[in-house]
Write a structure and sequence with these properties.
Elements (H helix, E strand, L loop, with lengths): L27 H5 L14 E5 L5 E4 L1 H7 L4 E2 L1 E4 L6 E4 L7 E4 L6 E8 L2
Parallel strand pairs: 4-7
Antiparallel strand pairs: 1-2, 1-7, 3-6, 4-5, 6-7
C-alpha cells in the first residue's frame, strides 16, 4: 500500500510528479495584457513626468508628484492630452520643471504634464 493519497500511479521510468513552477511566465498576464503601447493613455488627473536626461516618461498620481517636487522650481507645466496639449507658466520651455526624476533619480529639467 502506498502512503500517498494520489490515485494516479506514476509512469514507468518517469518522475513521480512533474516539477511545478511557482509562476507562469506565459499565463494570465499574457492573456490579459495589452501589447499596443500607443493605445494606453494615462488616466484623467494623473501627471506625467518626462526627464530631459534619461528621456523616460513616468505617470504619477497628484500626491506622488507633490512628494517628488517638494524642493523644485516650476517655470512651466503642460496641460491636456496628446496633440491638444499646451504649455502654461512663466516661460514656454519644453522642460520647465527642475526636480528629481522618478525614473533615474537625478535632479534635472523635466516636463510635467497634467492630464485633463
Amino acid at each position: 500500500m502506498t502512503a500517498s493519497f494520489d490515485r494516479v500511479r506514476p509512469r514507468a521510468g518517469g518522475p513521480a510528479t512533474p516539477p511545478r513552477s511557482l509562476h507562469d511566465s506565459e499565463g494570465k498576464r499574457a492573456l490579459f495584457s495589452s501589447t499596443d503601447v500607443a493605445s494606453v493613455r494615462p488616466n484623467i488627473g494623473t501627471v506625467s513626468v518626462e526627464c530631459s536626461q534619461c528621456h523616460t516618461s513616468t505617470t504619477l498620481s497628484p500626491t506622488a508628484v507633490v512628494r517628488a517636487a517638494v524642493p523644485s522650481v516650476l517655470l512651466s507645466v503642460g496641460l491636456g492630452r496628446g496633440e491638444r496639449e499646451s504649455t502654461v507658466g512663466l516661460s514656454r520651455r519644453r522642460y520647465g520643471a527642475w526636480l528629481r526624476c522618478p525614473a533615474c533619480g537625478r535632479r534635472t529639467w523635466t516636463r510635467l504634464t497634467l492630464h485633463v
